[in-house]
Write a structure and sequence with these properties.
alpha/beta; TIM Barrel; 36% helix; 4 iron, 4 sulfur cluster binding
């Protein structure tokens, strides 16, 4: 006689299952092909890449891996006509580029119906610059709750600048403001609820908590920083931290992961691990050069 799955479930498994069932998809992930499990080869929604350069040197960053391997995308628009959403940008720090305001205006004019997302580390965002930008959603990366830990992770003494950027966007209720945080157990798992509390106090709308992807060239840096590799791949550990952060802010986890977790029963969810090791990130979208020509 078989054992009923419900008998094997524990209280923590049931709590995790309810938490996952109740979670909303991240605002940034709306329109992403990764939410459609019937799509055999989903790709991220379009992006405009301004530069692979960055003033941070984060221990986990896929962008610096792509640069080292010569696989970082050239500046330009990667996507298709009539997009629902465009991200500026997925590689490098867009606010380094002197063209950020110009490109923002080009995209708004060329794709007036598209949601425009800004993905930034926030360290260069000022009130003056913010007044010249026009985005619908802003994701600011913050992976530590203190200046010292931020310096260890980013190799940049910019914690106060990032906090100020969260304050700037948190005050602006015309945009969806998001703090984007990477789960690195052994390094920042205890910081994540504190980041959530800090962001909420600054008026930020949402936390997008993402599992870590370990790229080959960053593995040793993460090990030296104290990463617990096994816990980094445990979905249960990710969800437990998300539940703690949820006490302070509207926390959400990556949509392409969440859509799969919602299909799992409590026992599977409790024990599942996410394979999170890759060699280098790749852009699957085509580069289109016509968008700037059409706006000159």
């Amino acid at each position: 006689m078989g054992v009923e799955p419900q008998i094997l479930e524990n209280e923590e498994a049931r709590l995790l299952k309810k938490f996952v069932d109740d979670l909303a998809y991240p605002s940034h992930c709306r329109f992403c092909q990764g939410l459609d499990l019937s799509n055999p080869n989903p790709i991220h929604h379009p992006s405009y890449e301004l530069t692979p350069a960055c003033n941070h040197d984060c221990i986990f960053c896929y962008s610096n891996v792509a640069v080292k391997l010569g696989k970082a995308p050239k500046p330009g628009y990667y996507g298709w006509d009539n997009p629902n959403a465009i991200t500026v940008s997925q590689y490098g720090e867009p606010l380094i580029s002197p063209r950020i305001i110009e490109v923002n205006r080009i995209l708004r004019k060329r794709f007036p119906e598209a949601r425009l997302d800004l993905q930034t580390n926030g360290s260069l965002l000022t009130e003056e610059l913010w007044e010249k930008l026009d985005f619908d959603l802003v994701m600011i990366s913050l992976d530590a709750a203190s200046r010292e830990k931020h310096l260890e992770i980013t190799n940049a003494d910019t914690f106060d600048n990032v906090v100020n950027a969260l304050r700037i966007v948190g005050r602006d209720k015309s945009v969806r403001s998001i703090v984007r945080t990477i789960f690195m157990p052994g390094i920042n798992d205890e910081d994540i609820p504190k980041i959530a509390e800090l962001a909420a106090s600054l008026g930020v709308d949402e936390m997008m908590l993402q599992p870590l992807t370990i790229h080959k060239l960053n593995g040793e840096r993460l090990r030296e920083a104290g990463l617990d590799f096994e816990r980094a791949e445990s979905v249960r550990e990710l969800l437990k931290v998300a539940m703690e952060a949820k006490k302070y802010i509207d926390v959400r986890i990556s949509g392409c992961l969440l859509v799969q977790l919602k299909r799992m029963d409590a026992l599977t969810l409790y024990n599942v691990y996410k394979v999170s090791r890759e060699v280098s990130p790749l852009v699957k979208r085509k580069k289109l050069d016509e968008i700037e020509k059409s706006n000159t």
